[in-house]
């Protein structure tokens, strides 16, 4: 993603009183990454614009990797948890995950 896109999205989200959840993706197996911003940078830019911003985390990565990713962005307002079930939710370090949204 590029910075202009994130700033435009943030301004629109602030005006409409929306939250933004950025995908915490992996580098592509083939080809090059598109854009110049990481999800962590996008969250920071959005928060500078006064928008509630967080990242998506998938249980497909495993509990340790998920917690590592969450710790890498403590300033996120929320974490959008994908592929969750009750057993996995109970294993998460509660101090890491604040205001989780579940899918």
Terminal CA distance reads 24 Å
**Radius of gyration over C-alpha positions, nearest whole angstrom:** 14 Å
The biggest sheet amounts to: 4 strands, parallel
Give the low-confidence spans.
none
Determine the strand fraction and express it as a percent band: 15-25%
- Which bin fits the share of residues in helices? 25-40%
**Strand segment tally:** 4
Shape: globular
Average pLDDT, rounded to a whole number, is 81
Strand order of the largest sheet: 1-2-3-4
Separate helix tally? 4
Structural class: alpha/beta
- Reading the helices and strands in chain order gives HEHEHEHE
Structure notes:
The protein is built from four helices and four strands, in the order αβαβαβαβ. With 103 residues, the protein is α/β, with parallel strands linked by helices. A four-stranded parallel beta sheet has the order 1-2-3-4. α1 packs across α2. The chain is globular. It starts with a helix and ends with a strand. 22% of the residues are buried. The model has no long low-confidence stretch (mean pLDDT 81).
Give a quick rundown of the structure.
Helix content is 37%, strand content 17%.
Keyphrases for this structure?
alpha/beta, 4 helices, 103 residues
Spell out the blueprint of helices and strands:
Elements: H1 3-15, E1 20-23, H2 39-48, E2 53-58, H3 63-71, E3 78-82, H4 86-91, E4 100-102
Parallel strand pairs: 1-2, 2-3, 3-4
């Amino acid at each position: 993603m590029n910075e202009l896109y994130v700033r435009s999205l943030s301004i629109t989200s602030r005006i409409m009183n929306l939250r933004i959840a950025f995908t915490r993706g992996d580098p592509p197996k083939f080809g090059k990454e598109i854009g110049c911003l990481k999800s962590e940078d996008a969250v920071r830019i959005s928060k500078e614009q006064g928008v509630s911003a967080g990242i998506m985390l998938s249980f497909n990565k495993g509990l340790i990797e998920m917690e590592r990713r969450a710790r890498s962005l403590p300033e996120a307002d929320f974490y959008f948890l994908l592929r969750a079930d009750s057993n996995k939710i109970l294993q998460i370090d509660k101090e890491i995950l604040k205001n989780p949204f579940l899918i």
